[in-house]
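Recall that a protein's primary structure is simply its ordered list of amino acids. Everything else, from secondary elements to tertiary packing, is in principle encoded there. The following example makes that idea concrete.
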Amino acid sequence: MKIKDIADILNAEIVCGFNEINREANYCFASDLMSDVLTIDKDNLLLITGLSNLQTIRTAEMSDIFAIIFARNKEITKEMKKLAEDNNMVLLKCKYSMFKTSGILYKNGINPVY
């Protein structure tokens, strides 16, 4: 599913990474534990998290994750946005919980990692 379609079905705000919104996401992983995120090895992976800090962006970069959905309407700082832009990442802000966000994406064909 394309990132722009994901943003639409989640009523999510695309904060940055507009040049990547036509890119496909095939898998999704939801976690606030960045140590768990580091164990995932999938291409075209989308991360759902409520952990809104620079470490989340750095972890995604190390894990080759190109798009992050920040659930629970978490704020994205200027520093986070800048780091994501420097790494060609898409950041989305969603008002739903991680559980609801995951369910909507699963229902619409995004594959779980496990």
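The mean pLDDT is 97. The beta strands are 13-16, 27-30, 45-49, 67-70, 90-93, 111-112.
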